[in-house]
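Quick one: examine this chain and its backbone structure tokens and tell me how the chain folds. Here goes:
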Amino acid sequence: MKRSIIPVVMLVAAVMLVACGDGSPAVHQTKVIAHRGYWKAEGSAQNSLASLRKAAEIGCYGTEFDVHLTSDGVALINHDDDIDGVAIWKNSYETFTDHRLANGETIPTLRSYLEEGAKYPDFKLVIEIKSAPDPAHETRSVAVVMDTVEELGLREQVEYIAFSYHICKEIVARDPSATVVYLNGDTTPEELRADGIAGLDYNIKIARNNPALFGDARAAGITTNIWTVNDEADMRELISYGVDFLTTDQPELALELTGGNAGQAE
């Protein structure tokens, strides 16, 4: 029997169609976000400058990348909260300057990553501000990240995601016009909308266990994203439902299935 991610296929498909000028339905196009960049490409590595460039060059909507704040206030691009077992938030930037990524790059700072991303102005930079044990550190992380974005003039190119609801609300408080999307999957679409959060970005397992999420999100007027979708069958099914975004480690496959994205990077 064919696996079904969302039982309410007809309902979801209906709300994901947009009327054309002649009254006929046009299928909603799903956009592709590279998960930690296009890191599977030759010469690349997760959260590297090369992975950013390669994701932009193949025409992704954007790239997702992870930001932690060091004890002395430097925003570093790294997925885990430690590097070689050393906690980022408890140690200074100097502690990590000798570390090399799999492709030989040094660990990018947020500033260097954003400066590289600015070379592709139609390409979205999706910043995941990572959670921290201390809410005060999270608040400080938000301030450093958003101040850097503002200083570089990249407000329109940047979007934010976070597992911490505290981080999401801090971003909205600082800039109500910012695009902020919640990752954790424990809040209703109506609550997200009420708090000024633009969308939900949930793991595919959560989507399967909560079939009403898609319809509820559309009714609330917020966007939908599913991560991390690497299987072709899953991609096809979610695309058929009109999910707004797919976050994937296989961006070339996803782009092939979606037909590419509007606003591709040159």
